[in-house]
Write the structure tokens for this entry.
Amino acid sequence: MMKEAYIPDFEGWKKEVMERKTAVWSKEFNARWESFLKERDERVERKKKELSIPFEQRMRRQKTEEERIRDREFGEKDAAFMQEAREKWNKRMNLDVSLSMMDGRNSKIKSFLKDKGGSLLRILLDNYPGKAIEVFKYLKLAGYEEGEMMEFIDREMGKNKDTEFLYQSSLGRKFLKEKKE
């Protein structure tokens, strides 16, 4: 299971996932966001002009019903866009956290497959010295295919006095024959 869960090119995979997910979220939102920002800038300019009028004149001036409705609609639109932007940000952060956790898991799997495999073999050799069938049985339970077992043993410990009996098994002889070719 660990070998299946390991993603060799994790950074490339992560970049692809980020682009695919964020493209879906951003496409529609960004177009509306640009028009919203433009409208917001226009409102800010109007407010600046309004502030240039002396205070007493501003207080006497009454807003028209149309201006009140437009202000209320803009306030509602502003709140809705801010909520949508917050949700988009939260989705992005959740995706970042998930991918970060996956990156950590992927690194641990890589480390385990690289370093801990020898520990597994050492445990099996200590518990089943001279019993190739038992060693192969537990390697199979650990997820190694028949063709991978001898490669694993050769890579982790090589041929030595502790592993000699494994090389003398039918699987070991087959492996040595293929290795010579």
Notes: The chain has a mean pLDDT of 80.
